[in-house]
Every structure is written in C-alpha cells, then in structure tokens.
Amino acid sequence: MGIKWDEFFITGDPLILGSQIAILLTMIGAVAAITYLKKWKYLWTEWLTTVDHKKIGIMYIISAVLMFFRGGMDGLLMKAQTARPEMEFLNSQHYNEIFTTHGVIMILFMAMPFLIGLMNVVIPLQIGARDVAFPQLNALSFWLFFSGAMLFNISFVIGGSPDAGWTSYFPLAGKEFSPGIGNNFYAVALQIAGIGTLMTGINFIVTILKMRTKGMTLMKMPMFTWTTFVTSILIVAAFPIFTVALALMTFDRLYGTHFFTVSGGGMDMLWANLFWLWGHPEVYIVALPAFGIFSEVIATFSRKSLFGYKSMVFSILGIALLSMVVWVHHFYTMGSGPAVNSFFSITTMAIAIPTGVKMFNWLFTMRKGRIKITSAMLWALAFVPCFVIGGVTGVMLAMGAADYQYHNTLFLVAHFHYVLIPGVVFAVFAGLYYWWPKMFGFMLNEKIGKWHFWLFVIGFNVTFMPMFFLGLNGAVRRAYTYSAESGFAPLFMLSAIGSIILAAGFAVFCYNIYWSIRYADRNISSDPWDARTLEWSTASPVQFYNFAKLPEVKSLDPFWHMKKKNEGLTLFDSEIEEIHMPSNSWLPIYMGVIFGIAGFLLVFEWHIAAAVAAIGIFAGLIIRSFDYNEGFHVKKDEIHRIENAWRKTEGEVHDHVS
Amino acid sequence: MSAKVDTSLPLEYQTEQDRMNILGFWVFLGAEIVLFATLFGVYGVLYERYAGGPTHKDIFVIKDVMIQTVLLLTSSFTMGIAIFEMRRHNLKGLITWLVITLALGAGFLFMEINEFIHYAHEGATMQTSAFLSSLFVLLGTHGAHVTLGIGWATMVIIQLLKRGLTPTTARKTFIIGLYWHFLDVVWIFIFTFVYLKGLVA
Questions:
Q1: What is the value of ipTM here, to two decimals?
Q2: Has residue B62 been placed in a domain?
Q3: Domain ranges (residues) in chain A
Q4: Any transmembrane segments, and where (chain B) (predicted)?
Q5: Looking at chain A from residue 230 to 259, which residues have their Cβ under 8 Å from any Cβ of chain B?
Q6: Residue B32's closest chain A neighbor by CA?
Q7: In terms of CA atoms, which chain A residue is nearest residue B151?
Q8: B35, B51, B172 ranked by CB distance to A265: nearest
Q9: What are the tens digits of pLDDT across the range A220-249?
Q10: Is residue A221 classed as helix, strand or coil in its secondary structure?
Q11: Which residues of A touch B42 (CB under 8 A)?
Q12: Residues within 8 A of B (CB atoms), A 263-292 only
C-alpha cells in the first residue's frame, strides 16, 4: 500500500542526508550521555512521568525552543534560496516542503507550546493554586503535543515532508495532486497535537474558574490569567473545527471520500473555510496570551498598576468574539462576492479597535511610571511599534477590494510576520526573561540578553521590512525563485542579510541560556523584579506544592499590596497543614508513544497495523479508568523544612534589578 | 485538591475534585457540540451533491430509522432513571437500569450497522458522492460515540460492582450519563435534519 520500501528513507539530497546523520548521532549521543551520567531514573521520575505543572511547562518550553531552531533553519534555507535570482540551492519541491514545514512548525509547534509552557508554569501560581485542575490530563496534553510534533518532524527524513503549504489547500493537498504520503503527515500529526491542545484548553478553563485562591474574583485576576482564560475558551471553540477538517482530509486522502476533491461533488473551498474557521481564531489563541505577558511585564517594570484593567478585559473578550467572524478575509479573491467581502472587511477592521485600546492602555501604563529597562521590558517596548506596523498593514489587507492587489504577495507575508514575531516571539522572550528566575532560581544574563534583543529586533526588521516593498512590487509568496529582470534582487538580498542577523540573535539567546546555567548567581531573591502578582510570593524555583499556605487576595496586584502593607508574607507554624498532591504517572507518556506509533502507521496507510496500535490507545484509556491512585500527602515536617530553607535566606540576597 | 467531603450535596458533587471533573466534562461537551456542528455544517454544504449517485429517497428506510430513534430516545430515558436510582443510593437499581440502557444502545448500533450494510448494497458508499461522504461521516461519528459510550459505561459498571457507590464511582456514572444524553440530543438533530429533511426535500 501507499509507499515503496526504497522510498521509506528520503535519499539523494545531501542536505537531508546530512540531517539524517546528524539526527542519528544526536540520538546516540543523548542516549550515551544519559547512560554515562546514570540519569535515566532521574529523567523518568522527575520529568517523563511528572504531573507537576511547572515541570510540564518547562518541558513545553524546551520543546518549543528546539522547534524554533528547526523552523528557523527552514526560514534561513528559504532566505538563502531567494537571496539571488535563479539560485539553484534548493529545487522547487524542496522549497515547497520547507515553507510548509516552516509555517506549521512555527505556529503549532513553536508559538503554541511556548505560550502553553509559560501558561503552565505561571497560571496556577498567579491564581494561588497548587496545580491545574487535572494534573494528569495536563501531562497527557504535553505528551500528545510532543508526539504530534515528533511525528511531523520525522517526515523530512522518513517518507517525505508535506509540501502543500501550511494551509494545505485543496485540491493541491488531495491525493490527486499530492500522491505521496507527505500530506498524510500533516493530517495525522496535527490531529494528535490538536487533541492535546484541546485538553489544555479544557484544563485551564476549569482551573481558572474553580481554583482561584480566596478573594480572587474574576476582576481581580492578573491580566495573563485573563488572556489565558479567554484563549482557552477560544481553543475549545475552534480546535474541534480543525479536528473535523483534518479528519475529513484524512478520509479524502486515505479512503477516497469526496469532501474536498472536485470530482464526486466535493468542494475545495469547503476546506479553505473550515481551515480558516479554526485558523483565524488560532491567530488570537497565540496572540492573546502574548498580550497578557506584555501586560504583566509592562506593569511590573513601569512599577504601576495596569492602566484600564476593565477595558483590557473587555478588549480581550471583544477580540475573541470578533476572531470567530473574520475568517473569509483570508480568501477575498476566491469569489465570495462583494456583499460577503464587505461584511468580512468590516469585521476585520473592527478588530483594530479593541487592539488599539490595548495599545493605548500599555502606553498609559508606562506614562509617569518609573520604568526599568530590563531585557524583558525591552521586548515589550519594541513590541509596541513593530506590532503597530503589523496591525496597520493588517487594516490595509482587510479592505476586500484592495486585497486583490496584495493577495498572495510577500506584502502579506511581511504583514503576518510583523504581527506574529512582535506579537508572539517578542512576548515569549519577554516572558522567558521575566519568569526564568521563578522557574529555575537564577536569572538570565541581562547583558547578553540585551545583545540578544538588539540583534533579534534589528534582524527582524531588516528581514521583513523589505518584503513589504517586494510584495507591493509584485513578488509572490511561495515562489522558489525569480528572474534577474524582475528587479527584486537587491531587496531579497537585504532580507537575506537580515535573516542572518536574526539568526545571530537567536544564537545569542541560546548562548545566554548556556552562560546563565553555568555562571549565573544562584543567591537571588524570590522576587527579583519587585513584582506585583502572586507567583513572586513563593520560592524560586517554586517548591513542588507551590504555596505552604494558600494566599488570600484583597485587590488587584495582590503581592504588591501584601508587600506594601506587610501582611500575609510570614508563615506561622500553626498555619502549616498537610498538603495533598497528585502522584506521578507513566500513562501520559505511554499514551504519547502509542499515539505516535499508531499515527505513524496511519501515515503510511498500513491500516491493519495502525488498528492494532490503536488497541494500545484503548488499553491506556481502560487502565486510566481503573486507576484509583489518590495521590499523596506532604507531611508537616517536610513543609517546615522546605519553607525554612528559602524563607531564611530572604533579606540577604543580591539585588539584581537596576 | 483537598479531600473535604460535603455530605449535604449529591454523592457525585461531594468533593471539589469531583465538581471540577463534572465541570470539565461540560466544557468537553461544549467542544463536542462544536465538533458535531462542524459535521452538520459540512453535511449542509454537501447534502445535495449526489454526483449522479443515489439520493436520500433512494436509500433511506424510514421505518428502520424510526426504530433506531425509539431505541436511542428510550435509552436516554432509562439512563435518567439510572441516575435517579443512584441518587436514591440504590446500587442494584442503578446497575439494572444502566444495563438496560446499554442494551438499548446496542440495539441502536445493530440497526445502524444494518442500515449501513443496506446502503452499501444499494451502491451507496462513502466513495460514491460528496453527499454520501458527509452522510457516512456524520452518522459514523455519532455511531462511534455510541460504541465508545457502551464500552466506557461497561467499565463504569465493573467499577460499581467492585467498589459500590462512592463519590468517585457516582461521579463517573453521572458523567457517562451526561455523555449519553448528549448523544441523544445529537441524534434528534440527525433525525430531523438528515432523515426527515432528506425525505421531504
């Protein structure tokens, strides 16, 4: 069925051969290193089977950084290929595969897990809870995401990468025009990761609704918690649409149905509509938590409460609502007619209003604040102008009539990179610098951080600003080359140079992590930024039960007021009670592995083998159903010991801000 | 997270964790509504695209569909009685009514499989036309949910037999009850917008 054995491994391309060897060596190296250091047991008990939201968050972030590297490599290859006209570095097929995987990986396997990772680490702490509502489900979410990501990534060495664009429009993505198995990887891997994301959405809705600490009403929640909450609702509202779309794609490709194929009465535009019905909310699923991160960072480093808290909340809700009714703006040129296009033009432009409100709120938060220019704050500052460029060009694109000029050009590509890079990547960097000490108990180096910042921001602008002008001059997206006569060469060259600066910024970021792990000062305060929300009221790194005593909230920015009034900060011995915590479980990682195996077999259209593997999935579900593990209780003595260890050192730590 | 038990509430709501599980399941049902709404939307787009193949009137047998409907709606009613018995702490009654519910569900499934076989004999398969693709996937998704529900409820019955009525088993029973009623609601839409509408069109 499907594939010939001699096509199983992709051969013949030196780039891919090099990757295959590199992957093999890395895997052998990793296994050897873990064995040599005798870390298997540690890895298994502390990380792979953990249900601790903080560790799951860190695993999400590590995966996201790795995926950032992979997606970034794809980007650099594209930039190298288009640096000069008529380049022969990549052929058209290879280029198609690379822009497809670049898009999918950056959105679904970099942006999403990075944000979900930060959400995992921070949200329970911000609302004063000891974990999420369903800790084991949370681990399952991670392993399903990881399984999907790995399945998608092996496509370029085994079987062939998907090559129909990250949107995978039909009829191109159908069996007729993409007969290989590449697009099966798209359909199956995204399905597996998507189930994980849906579970995350459900988990955080319940966590935020039910587990807020005493006194924290909805309108006293930190802004990052609010955005996470609304994002989770969007996930639950949008991801099932994608689940259905991918399932129908799988049916069309594997079982010969006619949903999107033009023969047999199917409709290719049905795919485009379903895809963007999920795809546009997805943009806000990644943008809203990022806005929340900026809100936290800007308030902390302006040393003021967030300006216009209520209007922020209503803006988020407005954006979420509007995000569900703008999807047609992705295909104005596909013949929906003037009435439909006008409707969607108006809804799209309307999104600029709540977004504008948020922008002004951030600016007014900074007004008259005593601003501290830390690395985290720099990202937030750069976000404002860069994102405004993305937003304004978005309003240009929103006009249905004008869009005929921009559609499918690099103008559009520049636009969404100006939205997603400042809107998401700057945010996760800001969040990482900001919450790093909370996660690990030491800080990322501020000086290297500034190198990282400047290289990345300059590189970003040099890379993508020329693409606006290329697009206006008629350069189309997804074209692997262009002629010398087109006159595009100088701007393409400039853009390629920019991408190298961008990559250098990322390299400095990686170096910063390395440097900080090795040399950073471990003796820091648990509240190094003089911050405002509850996550800073506990130890760094956070003890596994988060809070010895659940804090009580009386106002916005609760920790700030606790510090001002000096109340609720000390822990009396009489207040310590036993704490109930969930046990580790091997089931989530088992489910990830078995889903990965079943998915892999399905990709290759080995249906019987896939069905056998699917029995393993049901076995896992049944084992879970009969699992009555009630968790364990942390004894008072242990809490005493842990609390004394970090509370004693307070007051004699080095000052790291300023 | 704490094991505080509030005995003034029904069994399934007594601990905070159980209350969260039930809320989480409601949210999951929200996602399921979106999932089925999408499938209905797809069907609504494709339902007249016969591509020269059989139409609704060629394949639907309304008598069999009526039997399916009665079986499934009755099973929803018996599921309601099961939960009622659970609230009365009557384990035997609960299990009896659960078994009756599942038997009715199995009867529904048997009828549905026969219906599919009948369609295939008429030359109406998933690959025939866009209409049939959307029909089979919509009905099949619902049928798969019923199948899963039967398997899942069987697991819960085993746990009830082993452990009796505890807050945990009560919560599990309550959640499968919610799920079962949800499938019933979906079927009402299928019966109306697929079968009845298909026959009067």
A1: 0.95
A2: no
A3: 39-585+629-649
A4: 21-45, 65-84, 91-111, 131-161, 173-196
A5: 236-241, 243-245, 247-248, 251, 255-259
A6: A240
A7: A622
A8: B51
A9: 999 999 999 999 999 999 999 999 999 999
A10: coil
A11: 244, 248, 259, 270, 274
A12: 263-267, 270, 274, 277
3-class DSSP state of A533: coil
Q: At what angle do helices B62-87 and B91-121 cross, to 10 degrees?
A: 160
- Looking at the 3D structure of chain B, how many domains does it have? 1
Hey, what amino acid is at A101?
Answer: T
Q: Domain span at residue B161?
A: 11-43+90-200
Superfamily of domain A39-585+629-649: Cytochrome c oxidase-like, subunit I domain (1.20.210.10)
Rounded to an integer, the average pLDDT of A543-558 is 92
pLDDT at B1 over 60: no
Say whether residue A300 is in contact with chain B using an 8 A CB cutoff: no
Our measurement of the distance from residue A237's CA atom to the centroid of its chain's CA atoms, rounded to an integer in Å, reads: 18
What is the pLDDT, as a whole number, of residue A205? 97
The CA distance from A54 to A119, in Å, is 9
Alpha carbon separation from A233 to A104, A289, A321, A460 (Å, rounded): 22, 12, 10, 31
Give the pair of three-digit tokens for residue A93: 């097929």
> Which CATH number do you get for residue B188?
1.20.120.80
Handedness of CA A477, A481, A483, A484 (dihedral sign): positive
- The predicted structure's pLDDT at residue B3: 59
Give the model confidence (pLDDT) of B100-153 as tens digits: 999 999 999 999 999 999 999 999 999 999 999 999 999 999 999 999 999 999
Instruction: Return the higher-pLDDT residue of A568 and A117.
Output: A117
Tell me the pLDDT band of A184, cut-offs 50, 70 and 90: very high
Name residues whose C-beta falls within 8 Å of residue A3's C-beta, 6 or more positions apart in sequence.
Answer: A159, A180, A181, A604, A605
In a domain, B5, yes or no: no
**Using a CB-CB distance cutoff of 8 angstroms, which residues of chain A are in contact with residue B28?**
202
**B3 assigned to some structural domain:** no
Partner-chain contact A240 B152, CB within 8 Å: no
pLDDT tens, residue by residue, A54-65: 999 999 999 999
CA distance to partner chain A, nearest, from residue B35 (Å): 5
Show residues of chain A in contact with B16, CB under 8 Å: 210
Q: pLDDT class for A281, splitting at 50, 70, 90?
A: very high
User: Is residue B166 included in any domain, yes or no?
Assistant: yes
Model pLDDT, residue A17: 79
The amino acid at residue A633 is: H
Q: Enumerate the residues of chain A whose CB falls inside 8 A of the CB of residue B2.
A: 580
